[in-house]
Amino acid sequence: MSEESELKFCSACGALLEIKIPEGDTRERHVCTKCGQIHYENPHNIVGTVPVYNGKVLLCRRAIDPCFGKWNLPAGHQEMKEGTMAGALRETKEEAGAELKNVCPFMLLDVPFASGTHIYFIGDVVNPDCKPGPETLA
Ligand SMILES: [Zn+2]
Which fold has domain 44-125? Predict the structure, then answer.
């Protein structure tokens, strides 16, 4: 278990959490010292796209940290109860203002040191006059 975890208190009762292996489990978890609730931490899905227009890939220049000013593909955290493709298209619209058609899976990248899985779709940009959102410089 990561020593960098930000989990400190139980979201059910507010008591302190301790790190231990619950009965019947094989890994250390955050367990409430009062009510016993187990708080699981799992990898985050980052969803995004490779937007293509006339054989070129549309990139975004980040207006937020981390990596302010760096170029990247439009992507972000998948929301709860949101599909991976829906999240990727939402992030593409939010960050690049771009809408895509002919969308299909492109690649999956495991980033275990950051406990993340990046899932990318590729598609054709249908609105080349798109404008970037507030998280994007250009
Ligand atoms: Zn509790």
Answer: Nucleoside Triphosphate Pyrophosphohydrolase (3.90.79)
For residues 109 and 64, give the distance between their C-alpha atoms in angstroms, rounded to a whole number.
22
Residue 8 Cα to ligand 1 midpoint, Å, equals 11
Q: Is the pLDDT of residue 100 over 80?
A: yes
Question: Which fold, 1-41?
Answer: Ubiquitin Ligase Nedd4; Chain: W; (2.20.70)
What residue spans define the domains of the chain?
A: 1-41, 44-125
Mean pLDDT of all residues belonging to the chain: 94
Cβ 92 vs Cβ 98: under 8 Å: yes
CA of 78 to the centre of ligand 1 (A): 27
Q: Once rounded to an integer, what is the mean pLDDT over residues 99-111? A: 97
Helix (H) or strand (E) holding 106: strand 100-111
Instruction: Collect all residues with Cβ–Cβ distance below 8 Å to 35 and sequence separation of at least 6.
Output: 10, 12, 13, 15
CA 109 to ligand 1 centroid distance, Å: 35
Q: Assess contact for 61 and 137: CB atoms under 8 A.
A: yes
